[in-house]
Specification:
Helix content: 40-55%
Oligomer: single chain
Number of helices: 14
Number of strands: 12
Length: 382
């Protein structure tokens, strides 16, 4: 077998080709890392947002969208008293009637972005138990409490949406009363209003949904309640299943990310193959000479793969460095919230596997073509 130093020396015989190979492999690996991280981040956000202990009561026929749902105001009190086994922290039943509304929110300076607005009472904290108020207080009439990542949607620093600042909805201004976190959920990109304020602004006399938190009760208890109260026209759905359905709704978006990545990566890959074909074609006589002095074609093929792996793994290392600097920890907003890109071990292994595949599978066609001619033909080649 040829020594590894032979492959290393051949890498630097043509610096231009080396740069093309390293750059092309870095681009492909970086695209795969970015696509995997984007899909993983969006999916994890939606999965983490739902709790198996929470049940959402929505209007019949609106099981796939809380925003389109309408629930009678009486449903909150009726569910709180009739559904057995609800959590009762500090003696308060964990049942929260809420208004969920998607509308443009404006910050000082005139910047306006579609945001998810939630009209709540203090009972919302009993149901959404991941919510922690970081600064300020729960909103009162004329106030709004914002998630810690809402500023990302507007592309402004966090201080621009700190307590005491103003935001506008419609023709009304609201003072930010506090900032809250709900780690890993879509709630961190929402704005929470006093429920009566949001009901007045949106001119509605109904709720969007009633959120229940179970203790020793089961989902079937809430489902039976909806069947018994036909007058309220309710449907029950577990919160985690609701977000699973939303994740399925965004599946075409994730598919488009992969398709775009595949198209760009294919262009870089074919460009790299052309470079390898040209480079290996000029070494046919060299390979024939090595065979004459005793090296087998298998050894020469392994040397080609070693040489290519050194280049593609160097490109993979470059891609990891760029991803670590530019992507890791990056918060990206989408319609429901903001998700964070994290370079998990699974994503890193995916990028590494891509680099190895480029250096092995991608090398085989040009290498086999270089080794295909018989010795007499190869020795006479120019």
């Amino acid at each position: 077998m040829l020594p590894i130093t032979y492959a290393i020396r051949n890498l630097f015989r043509d610096p231009g080709r080396l740069l093309q190979t390293v750059g092309g492999s870095a681009l492909v690996v970086l695209l795969v890392i970015a696509a995997t991280a984007l899909n993983h981040g969006m999916e994890q956000l939606l999965q983490a947002s739902g709790s198996s202990k929470n049940v959402i009561l929505v209007g019949t026929g609106s099981e796939e969208s809380v925003e389109r749902s309408e629930v009678h105001l009486d449903a909150e009190a009726a569910a709180a008293t009739a559904v057995p086994g609800l959590a009762q922290p500090l003696g308060n039943t964990a049942a929260s009637g809420e208004i969920v509304y998607m509308a443009p929110l404006r910050i000082p300076g005139g910047k306006e972005e579609p945001s998810l607005l939630r009209g709540v009472t203090e009972k919302a904290l009993l149901v959404h138990n991941r919510v922690r108020i970081l600064e300020g207080a729960f909103p009162r009439p004329g106030q709004v409490m914002v998630g810690r990542l809402l500023h990302r949607r507007f592309g402004v620093p966090a201080r621009d949406l700190s307590p005491g600042r103003l935001v506008s909805f419609g023709n009304d201004e609201f003072t930010i009363s506090g900032v809250f976190e709900a780690t890993g959920t879509v709630l961190e990109s929402e704005a929470w209003f006093d429920r009566n304020d949001l009901a007045s602004l949106t001119q509605r006399d109904t709720l969007s949904a009633v959120y229940l938190r179970l203790d020793d009760g089961e989902f079937d208890d809430a489902h039976v309640f909806t069947l018994q109260r036909n007058d309220l026209e309710l449907s029950a759905i577990r919160e985690d299943l609701y977000y699973d359905k939303l994740s399925s709704f965004y599946a075409p978006v994730r598919a488009m990310i992969w398709i775009t990545t595949a198209l760009v990566a294919a262009g870089a890959l074919f460009g790299g193959l052309n470079t390898l074909y040209a480079a290996f074609a000029s070494r046919i006589r060299e390979m024939a000479t090595l065979q004459c002095i005793g090296y087998t074609r298998r050894s020469l093929l392994l040397s080609f793969i070693q040489e290519s792996l050194l280049a593609t793994l160097s490109g993979s290392l470059l891609a990891f460095i760029v991803a670590l600097i530019l992507l890791d920890g990056l918060n990206l907003p989408f319609s429901l919230g903001t998700f964070t890109i994290e370079l998990t071990p699974r994503i890193i292994l995916t990028g590494l596997a891509t680099g190895i595949a480029l250096g092995t599978i991608g090398t085989l066609p040009p290498a086999l073509r270089c080794l295909q001619p018989t010795l007499p033909v190869a020795l006479r080649s120019s």
